[in-house]
Structure formats: C-alpha cells, structure tokens
Recover the amino acids of this structure.
C-alpha cells in the first residue's frame, strides 16, 4: 500500500449543502508561501534536449521578463455558498448569494467571509435570520404553495437605478414528497432600501409553476396558459438578472422541467414587463438536466455568454459548466459548432453534444514521486461570472465539490480568457493577482505538463490528468502527443494539434499553482466541437531526478493483511512501473493478495519494481510479510459474559470509561440478559474503551447486537479515532469514524471525518428502541457496506485508511462530544476481512457451527461458467469464513492444478470433460465439492450466428432468423436498407437514420464472442454499432466513440462498466473489433491485438427471459453512420489465437 505524502493541506472546514441539502458556516484558510515565477526552459533537461533543427522555422515569442505575484496577498480559504450569484457593490466589495439564503463577501475574489451561513432545511430557524429577519413570515404565501416546506433555492441580488437592493427568492418542493421532484415552485422579489444585508421586505411572488388547472382558474396562472405542462413550461426557480449593453434589465431562470427562459424586466419595479407569460425559451425542456444559467456580456468580444450547468449537482452526478454565445441578450445562443441551444433537450445523451464544455470534474493527479498533492473538482457548476471594466478581466465564480470529500463544497474563482475566436476559456488554476506583462515566451513554454481533457460528455468521475511534454521544436510527446504553435502577433495565443483529439485554440498565461506556490505557464484551449483542454507546467526535473523521486516514494507496508495491495503502475512525468513477485500465489503482479490459510503460517514476498522513464530505468525491491488468516477471519470477540475480555485471546480485556473515550477507569457498567447469554448495559453516562490497535488494516468488519433504550441523535455505538496527540488523550481527533444508530439524518450511518473530508455511509433506515437489532459495517479498501439485520442497507465509498499506519483508539458508546449511548450491546466481533451479508448472517446472526459454515462455503464455491473453457483460469484457495480450499483434477493432461491456477491444454480432437474436486477445510473439519469443466478442443469454433450482409440480412448459419430494418430507434421502423462494398464481399451501409434489429436471444448467458468489421463515416459520441439488451436499463453497447475520452469501447449500462480500448478507431477505414466475455472476464481486440482486459463485466443476458439486439441503433442515441461487415456471434469465448486467425482470414 503506497504511503502518500502531501505537501499542502487545505486547512478549512466545510459544511454540507446542496440544492435541497443543508448549509452552514465555513471558515479557515491555508497560508501561501513566498514565490516567484518558475524558471525558464533552459533548466528542463528532459524537454529541451529533444529539440530539433525545425525549431528555427517556428514562429517564436521572444524572451521577456516574467510576471510576479505577491504571495502574501494569496490567502485562499473555503467558504460554502451553493449556487453563488455574484454582485459587486459600489464600494468594490464582491458578494455572492446562493441557495438556503447563504451569502459571502470578498474584497479580492481570493479570501471570502461568510455573511449569512444558510438555513438548515432539516430544522430551519427563521425567526431572526440575516437578510430577512423572519423569512417564514415574509414568504408565507410561497411556503403555503410548497406544502408548508420552508427553503430557498438559488437566489440573486441586483442593485437597480433607484439605489435599492433587489433580492430574487425562490423555492421548489413537491408537497406530496417533501422534495423537489416536481416543478412545484415560486419566484418572488424582496427589496432593501439601503443595505445589501437587508432586512428584505417581500414585494410579491410573480411566477408560479406546477399549478393545477383549478389553481390557474384561481389566479395562479402565468400569461395565457390554460394548463401547466412541465415538459414545456419552466420550473420557476434559479433566477439571474442582468443588464444588457444598452442598460436594459433581463432575467434568465429555470431548472429541468420545460427548460430555461428569459424575461424582459422593468427597471422601475424589478418585475417582468407585462404580456410575456413565462418568457422566451432559450434551452432545455422535457425535464433535461439543465439549470443554473447566468448571462455575462463582454465588451471585449461584444458577445453575451450564457452559462449553464448540465447533469446533477451531487458529487457523483456529473455537474459541468457549459457556455454558448449570442449577439443579443435574449438569444439565440449558439455553441462552437453553431448548434442552437434551444434544441438541447431530453436525456443526458441528448443534451451532451450541446454547448462548449468549459469545466467538468477533473483531477490534477499526484503520481508516485510527486512532492505535491492532487488538486481537483467534482461537479463544479451553477456558476456566475463577472467582467471587470477597470482591468478588462473576466471571472468565473462557481461552487464545486472535491474528490474524496463527499458533498462538501466551496466557492472557487477562476479567471476567464477570450480566445482569438471569441470563446471564453477558464484557467486551470484559482485566480491570483499577477503583476507585470502576463506573456509566456517560447522558452518558458517548454517543459513537462499535466494535461486535462474535459471532453464533451457529462462525466460523473473526475477526468484524470495525463503527462505531456512541450518541446522547443513545437512537438508534444508523452501520454498525449501532437504539435503546438505560439503566435508572436497575438501574444498568449496557443494553437495545438493533438493526435486522436483534433485541433485546439486557446490562451497561454502564467497562473498561480497553489500546490507548489509558484507561477507556472498554463494553457486553456477549446476545439471546434466545444471540448476544452487544460495544461499546467511542472517544475523542471531531469531523467535522473524523476527516477530517483519515483524510487524514493515506492513504499509498501512491511506487514499486510487484506485482499488487495496497491501497486502503483505509473509515476511522475509519465514514468512506468512494472512489478515482479517472488510468490504470485500470495501477491500477484496486479496486487491481488491471497492470504495463507489459518495455521499455515505467514508468507514473505519480495516485490520488485522496475521504473522506466525515457529509455532509462531503476529497480526497487521491497519485502512484504502477508499474515495468515485467523479462524473465521475473526480477530477479536467481546461476548460481555459479565466481563470485558476478548474470548479469542488476541487482545487484552477492554476497560470501562466515563462519558468520554479518554475517561478510562470511570463509569458504571452492568450486565444483563443479552441476545445470547449476557450483554453489557450502558447507562448513558458510561462506555467501554477497547484495546488500542483493534483494527490495523484497510479491510475489516465490525459486527454487534444492540438494544437501544432510546434513539438519541449522534450518540455513538462504535467509535474509532487516530489520536490527535498520542501523548495527550484530551486532544480531540480530526480523523475518526462513528458507527451510530442515529446520525445527522436520524438514521443508521457510518459517519467519518478525515481532516477536511467527510464521509456519510447513510442507510436511510433506523432501528427500533427497546428491541434487539443486529448491525454490521464492512470496509474493503475504503468501500463501505452497512448491514442491518443481515441485509445490506448501504454500499459506497470511500472512507479513509485510518489504521494501517496508525495505532487507533476504539470505544463503545462514547466519543469526545456527544451524549453516550444508552442501551444494551452484545456479541461485538471484529474481523480483519470485509464480510459479505451472507457471512455476517451465518457467523453472527444464525451463529452456525463449524460444520454448518463449511456447508455454506461449499455451496457458495464456484468457478463461474465452466461450460466452454479455452485457457488457464484461477482456482480459489480460500473461501468464506477463512476456509482453506485445495484442488485435484481427474485429468491432469487437460486441466492441471498448479497452486491457485488451473493450467489448460486443449485436446486436439474433441471437447473434454474434467472433474475438479475442491476440499474445503476449517478448524480441523473438511468437505468436498466436484465441479465439471468442459475444455473445448483446438480449432476455430463455429459461430452461433453470422451475418455476412452480402445484400441481405440473413444468418448464414441458418441457426436464427433474419434481421429487420428499423428507423432511428431499435423499437421503431422507417429505414431504407442499403449495402455497399465491404471488407469481405458486401457490407451493411447505415446512414445515421436507421439500423437493423437482429433476432432475439442471440446471446443468453455470460460466455460469448462478438466479432465484426467496422468502417465508420462519422464518429458521434455514444452512437452504438452493436447493441444488446435485457431491458432498457441493462444492456451492452459497442460504441466507436464512447464516454471515456471518446475512445472506442464496449459499454454496459445499469451495472456500469467501461471496456476501454484506449483509442478511437479511425473513420473511413476498416477495423476489426472483437469482444470476448468469458464469464465476466472481458477481452477486447482491435485488428487481432488484445487492447483491453478486465474482470467483473456484468452478466446482462443470463437472468433475462428475452434479449434483444440491434446494429447501429439503440433506444436513445444518434444511429450509426458507416459500414458494418461480417458480424459473427459465438456462444463460446474465442482464444487470442482464434481472434488473430479471424482477423488474418479476411482478404
């Protein structure tokens, strides 16, 4: 497990908030260090040494003095305002107001001060609240409209000509559900005479949405509508008001529902001009995930820019910022391809092609050898923007969440820069005031960069940085390759041609990299299709320094117990790391660990890393001791049979405490009848302090019976901490977890804090008082599962690794802050493995005997689909409850047992059935199980179906029926069938308007091969060429341009899986594509070569009664445009040799 070193810490506390979440105070700052701009390219030996004679022909920006920055002015901090709408008052102060009535201010767009913390929606206290005084009284009519639910969504403040402050408030809640799952909303205006801080007085609600026909008749209509339609009429929330270049006032608003609309406003009243109804539609509709719009006029370009957020706002739901532009304030707004944003509507696939994607989730990733940490955002969005007339600068003000920090969010400000073509691009770094001419010359641009490709999709996960190097001769090498050019006639302009991505034009500036506290060259550029890319230069390092840095950070634990050891495969600047293991049966080269069975002793393994970088290499050898498993994987068991002893004998007895974990020896414990035998009784003023080090790895399970006297919010059940100060027990920790019956949401939760990062393993379920319930939580490399009475109630991640490198403290019923737990606790078990629900049920709920556990393990033992074996496969050597598994073969000439691997020799003549016998052992007892394996004979299998497309849609094998022509969806009609010259004979020719439905049930299990020749005429993201589905949610799709970097992929829905080839197949060229699924082990081939392997591919077809298939169409996306030939489907997995033979067989 790699030990991470971070060179900076963001020392602030964030609060949880969201549209519909809670908001609150946030504060703290991380101080900057003194800085100057980074050194010139003459120091970058890894880059400048590769320049060529062609550099003399490049247009060059001559050397000039670098700008500077006063680092004392850069005092970044984190303040939480969700959906920040910016307003600058007459005194130059910037204010942002957002959801939940939160407000913050700044003098410099760097350091923010919370002016109003935001109301807590779960328990709002509105009687004396900043801005409004009594908000509940002021907006009583609106609160009644939303069923009595109180709240405030994204707000907006503007100061109009009369000198008053105009506050636009709004809220959305479905009175039936209590959440905003329907467009039941209101939008109103409140004013303050002379202070931005109010108090604001309600001037009336002027827009309603979600009304019934009867409510329209009662006066709640808008304009001339007779009936509200949520597909076309807007959700009346998220307002933003702005002045156009002629001084006229406008308001843009809306979220999901019928899309985004704009209204002309009356400057004298702050209300819409009469006769407009809901106003003019600009984008969205049909409940498209589009919201958070903002319009900025730039005198520099004479464009109005409409910002919009696509996707969902939570950290895992893909929020990203799009931009479009118009010469007039009310549109039409067009993107870089000239698409009218009014056409963007429908699902994610329908809206993703629209707009210029300015920023989505990203991560400048810290790799092995870095001396600084990662920096990234998740779900940035619902932004505002500001143009400073005095400096000519544009600014983006947004909220964002962060990797590994849950739903915490904070304000971020980035400078926006206009490209030569008039598009705004965002700096990769936070804004900092830079003094002097901000020009990067041809010497300074050279060096190693971290590169981010934002793409065009709605990305749920952060885009990870890649390594690239810009050379003096204009070439780009590394994980991203191509060429670049500067423009001495237009300083700061950079043009890049990136292989496999296309052409990008943008801006190159010095920017402040807070990770290293230096000014660095950074570029932001955009393609003609509206995809943004970023790059930020790293400090100079030679090859020797790179290798040494990677080698120095390659650290593994001396002792390990777990199922997976993290073996880094890449280092800084694109260095590669290859691994060898002295005992792959214990630790594989992929880091998978098979711990020795109980009683077999620990295993010592030597792991050798070979570091490769630019033709040089260095090796590092590390020793890891893998400890044997304990019986049942149980490391501690506190049965509370009138004592606090550990019945496994691994730990000393626990001790009583008072009302805090540090009050050891105090307290008043008693014992009474438990769920089995006796239980410990906690009286609400006492607890139990367990031995230190109870958990010492990143895979563990806590399991216990509990009978609360009362459900008290925040009272801990099990608490674990990394001591804040090992020598002072009174120092409260900043790294801890609490497993508690009632957390902040009043439900069972594993709640955790890791400095600034919080984790909520929220079950959404509670347990009763006065009754016994069983609770358990398992952690596997950060992935958390919470079980209630043996049923999984939560699954997700990621909780931090607190205890692998720290000696933790643990307690029952107490922590430092909250009321102690009151109730009974029994049978507290600790395991050093992440147990499944079935294991928890068997061990601690049903309390099965050893022989019964062996029976369960035998029944669960599987090798997957063994009906068509063609290659070596893994043999499990351990099972549930730490059972040991050994194997024998009935025919070693065909299947030979070699430790944890079955070595397969395919027979020459006919298929062979071999019986593998497993012996499962536990605590001196054993059982056996036989599994039959069918090994296919050598030679090419015959396809189950083959569509040659030789001017027909027939199956050449005669096994299934013919295909049929569809329209632009798999489930409609209307296409006009066409064929053309193919790779072999003729080919199916699709023009992007229709497809072909293949016979049902072509694939019915998880073992199959699909082979085809492809020649696309266009590469449209998400378009399918081969589609198979068990339902509208469960499917596989071969996509020439997929969701990850637009690479060619096999993609699976519902149980999402990205089979990424790592490249995009070319247009107007034949490519052979093969996918082989061998019972969840997926291999993808391009032109006969394996390009992807991965485990865990979903079994889409086995559970389904009927499966459907199509060529070129699915249920949602733009149909395929191009040729398809020789589509063959096999009901067995083809070997690599078979695939190579298929590829070679085409003339």
């Amino acid at each position: 497990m790699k030990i991470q070193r971070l060179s900076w810490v963001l020392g602030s506390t964030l609060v949880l908030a969201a549209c519909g979440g809670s908001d609150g105070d946030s504060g703290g700052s991380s101080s900057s260090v003194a800085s100057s701009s980074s050194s010139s390219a003459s120091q970058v030996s890894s880059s400048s040494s590769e320049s060529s004679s062609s550099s003399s022909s490049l247009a060059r920006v001559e050397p000039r003095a670098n700008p500077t920055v006063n680092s004392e002015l850069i005092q970044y901090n984190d303040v939480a305002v969700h959906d920040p709408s910016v307003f600058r008052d007459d005194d130059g102060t910037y204010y942002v107001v957002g959801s939940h009535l939160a407000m913050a201010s700044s003098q410099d767009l760097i350091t923010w001060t919370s002016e109003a913390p935001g109301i807590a929606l779960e328990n709002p206290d509105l009687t004396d609240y900043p801005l409004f005084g009594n908000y509940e009284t002021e907006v009583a009519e609106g609160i009644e409209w939303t069923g009595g639910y109180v709240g405030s969504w994204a707000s907006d403040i503007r100061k109009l000509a009369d000198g008053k402050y105009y506050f636009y408030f709004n809220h959305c809640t479905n009175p039936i559900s209590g959440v905003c799952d329907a467009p039941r909303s209101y939008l109103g205006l409140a004013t303050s005479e002379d202070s931005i801080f109010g108090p604001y007085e309600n001037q009336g609600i002027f827009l309603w949405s979600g009304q019934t026909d009867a409510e329209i008749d009662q006066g709640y209509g808008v304009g001339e509508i007779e009936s509200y339609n949520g597909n076309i009429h807007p959700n009346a929330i998220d307002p933003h008001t702005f002045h156009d270049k002629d001084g006229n006032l406008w308001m843009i608003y809306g979220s999901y529902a019928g899309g985004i609309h704009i209204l002309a406003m009356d400057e004298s009243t702050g209300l819409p001009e009469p006769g407009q109804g809901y106003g003019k539609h600009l984008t969205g509709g049909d409940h498209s995930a589009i919201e958070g719009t903002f319009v900025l006029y730039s005198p520099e370009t004479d464009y109005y820019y409409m910002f919009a957020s696509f996707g969902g706002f939570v950290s895992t739901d893909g929020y990203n910022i799009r931009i479009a532009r118009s010469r007039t304030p009310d549109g039409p707004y067009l993107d870089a391809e000239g698409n009218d944003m009014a056409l963007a509507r429908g699902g994610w696939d329908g809206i993703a092609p629209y707009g210029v994607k300015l920023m989505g989730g990203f991560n400048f990733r810290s790799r092995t050898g870095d001396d600084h940490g990662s920096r990234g955002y998740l779900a940035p969005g619902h932004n505002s923007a500001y143009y400073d007339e005095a400096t000519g600068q544009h600014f983006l003000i947004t909220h964002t969440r962060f990797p590994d920090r849950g739903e915490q969010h904070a304000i971020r400000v980035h400078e926006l820069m206009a490209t030569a073509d008039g598009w705004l691009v965002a700096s990769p770094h936070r804004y900092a005031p830079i003094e002097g001419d901000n020009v990067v010359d041809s010497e300074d641009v050279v060096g190693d960069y971290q590169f981010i490709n934002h793409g065009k999709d709605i990305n749920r996960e952060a885009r990870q940085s890649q390594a690239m190097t810009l050379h003096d001769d204009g070439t780009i090498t590394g994980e991203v390759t191509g060429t670049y050019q500067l423009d001495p006639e237009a300083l700061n302009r950079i043009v890049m041609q990136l292989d496999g991505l296309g052409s990008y034009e943008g801006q190159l500036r010095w920017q402040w990299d807070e990770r290293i506290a230096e000014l660095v060259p950074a570029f932001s550029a955009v393609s003609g299709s509206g995809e943004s890319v970023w790059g930020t230069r790293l400090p100079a390092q030679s090859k020797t320094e790179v290798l040494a840095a990677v080698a120095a950070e390659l650290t593994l634990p001396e002792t390990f117990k777990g199922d997976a050891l993290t073996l880094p495969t890449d280092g800084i600047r694109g260095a590669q790391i290859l691994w060898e293991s002295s005992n792959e049966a214990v630790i594989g080269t992929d880091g998978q660990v098979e711990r020795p069975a109980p009683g077999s002793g620990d295993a010592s393994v030597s792991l050798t890393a070979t570091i490769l970088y630019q033709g040089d290499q260095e090796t590092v050898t590390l020793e890891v001791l893998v400890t044997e498993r304990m019986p049942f994987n149980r490391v501690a068991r506190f049965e509370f049979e009138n004592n606090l002893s550990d019945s496994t004998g691994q730990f000393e007895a626990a001790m009583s405490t008072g009302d805090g974990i540090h009050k050891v020896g105090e307290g008043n414990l008693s014992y009474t009848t438990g769920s089995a035998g006796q239980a410990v009784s906690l009286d609400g003023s006492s607890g139990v302090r367990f031995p230190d080090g109870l958990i010492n790895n990143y895979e563990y399970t806590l399991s216990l019976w509990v009978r609360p006297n009362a459900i008290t919010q925040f009272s801990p059940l099990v608490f674990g901490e990394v001591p804040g100060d090992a020598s002072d027990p009174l120092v409260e920790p900043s790294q801890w977890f609490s497993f508690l019956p009632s957390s902040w949401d009043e439900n069972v939760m594993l709640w955790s804090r890791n400095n600034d990062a919080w984790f909520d393993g929220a079950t959404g379920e509670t347990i009763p008082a006065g009754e016994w319930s069983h609770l358990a939580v398992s952690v596997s490399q950060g992935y958390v599962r919470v079980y209630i009475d043996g049923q999984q109630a939560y699954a997700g991640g990621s909780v931090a690794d607190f205890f692998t490198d720290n000696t933790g403290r643990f307690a029952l019923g107490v922590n430092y802050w909250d009321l102690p737990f009151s109730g009974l606790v029994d049978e507290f078990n600790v395991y050093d493995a992440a147990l499944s629900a079935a294991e928890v049920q068997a061990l601690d709920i049903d309390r099965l005997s050893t022989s019964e556990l062996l029976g369960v393990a035998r029944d669960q033992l599987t090798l997957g689909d063994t009906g068509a074996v063609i290659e070596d496969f893994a043999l499990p050597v351990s099972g549930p409850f730490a059972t040991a598994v050994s194997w024998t073969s009935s025919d070693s000439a065909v299947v030979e047992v070699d430790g944890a691997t079955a070595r397969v020799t395919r027979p020459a003549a006919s298929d062979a059935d071999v019986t593998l016998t497993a012996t499962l052992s536990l605590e001196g007892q054993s059982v056996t199980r036989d599994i039959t394996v069918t090994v296919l004979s050598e030679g090419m299998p015959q396809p189950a179906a083959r569509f040659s497309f030789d001017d027909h849609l027939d199956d050449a094998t005669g096994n299934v029926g013919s295909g049929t022509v569809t329209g632009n969806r798999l489930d409609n009609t209307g296409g006009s069938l066409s064929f053309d010259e193919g790779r072999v004979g003729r080919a199916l020719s699709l023009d992007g308007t229709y497809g072909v439905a293949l016979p049902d049930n072509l694939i019915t299990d998880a073992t199959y091969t699909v082979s085809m020749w492809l020649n696309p005429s266009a590469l449209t993201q998400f378009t399918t060429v081969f589609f198979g589905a068990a339902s509208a949610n469960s499917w596989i799709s071969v996509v020439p341009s997929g969701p990850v970097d637009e690479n060619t992929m096999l993609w699976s829905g519902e149980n999402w899986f990205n089979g990424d080839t790592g490249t995009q197949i070319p247009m107007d060229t034949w490519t052979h594509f093969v996918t082989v699924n061998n019972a969840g082990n997926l291999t993808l081939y391009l032109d006969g070569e394996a390009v992807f392997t991965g485990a865990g591919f979903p079994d889409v077809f086995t559970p389904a009664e009927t499966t459907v298939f199509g060529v070129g169409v699915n249920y949602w996306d733009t149909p395929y445009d191009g040729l398809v030939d020789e589509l063959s489907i096999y009901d067995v997995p083809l070997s690599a040799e078979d695939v190579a033979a298929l590829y070679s067989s085409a003339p």
